[in-house]
């Protein structure tokens, strides 16, 4: 015996709404957690880009909190991660990476964002059924890549 089409549609829309609610980004400061991105980034001679800023996450935050960043310039995108210490104090963070292609990043205008996130594994320890990610705080800005 199957479910009526209207019940299937309601279930699908409910699942979609729950997913969208989890994906809504937080502001730069949310619930005592905060993150910022500096006005400039640096690039080394070999094309490695370094983003930096500050963050704070409250004691008692879930384990597995990390900083996820992305810088975008001229169609290039670079994602990087950094660890986070959730003790309620403000800490500096930095993340460095390279896309390893030419042309890559160069001094000039770019866009970047940083998110303070936590990933949760659902299901059995040996066979996780799903991984969800929550954003505790985020910041984004237009910046200048300076270097070489």
Class from helix and strand fractions: mainly beta
Query: What is the level 1 CATH name?
Result: Mainly Beta
Q: Give me the Rg, rounded.
A: 19 Å
Strand composition percent? over 45%
Q: Number of DSSP strands?
A: 9
- The average pLDDT score comes to 79
Number of domains in the coordinates?
1
What is this structure, in a nutshell?
With 148 residues, the chain is mainly β. The chain is 13% helix and 52% strand. It has one domain (25-147): Immunoglobulin-like.
Description:
The chain is mainly beta. The chain is built from one helix and nine strands. Strands 1, 2, 3, 4, 5, 6, 7, 8 and 9 form a nine-stranded mixed beta sheet that branches. It starts with a helix and ends with a strand. The relative contact order is 0.25.
Task: Write a concise keyword list for the protein shown above.
148 residues, mainly beta, Immunoglobulin-like, 9-stranded mixed sheet, 1 helix, 9 strands, 13% helix, 52% strand, globular, disordered N terminus
């Amino acid at each position: 015996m199957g479910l009526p089409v209207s019940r299937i549609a309601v279930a699908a829309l409910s699942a979609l709404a729950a997913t969208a609610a989890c994906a809504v980004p937080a502001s730069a400061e949310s619930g005592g957690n905060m993150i910022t991105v500096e006005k400039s980034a640096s690039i080394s001679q070999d094309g490695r880009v370094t983003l930096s800023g500050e963050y704070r996450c409250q004691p008692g935050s879930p384990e597995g909190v990390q900083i996820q960043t992305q810088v975008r310039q001229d169609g290039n995108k670079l994602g990087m991660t950094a660890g986070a210490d959730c003790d309620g104090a403000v800490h500096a963070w930095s993340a460095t990476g390279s896309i390893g292609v030419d042309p890559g990043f160069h001094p000039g205008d770019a866009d970047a964002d940083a998110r303070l996130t936590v990933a949760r594994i659902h299901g059995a320890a040996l066979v996780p059924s799903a991984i969800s990610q929550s954003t505790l705080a985020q910041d984004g800005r237009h910046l200048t890549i300076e270097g070489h």
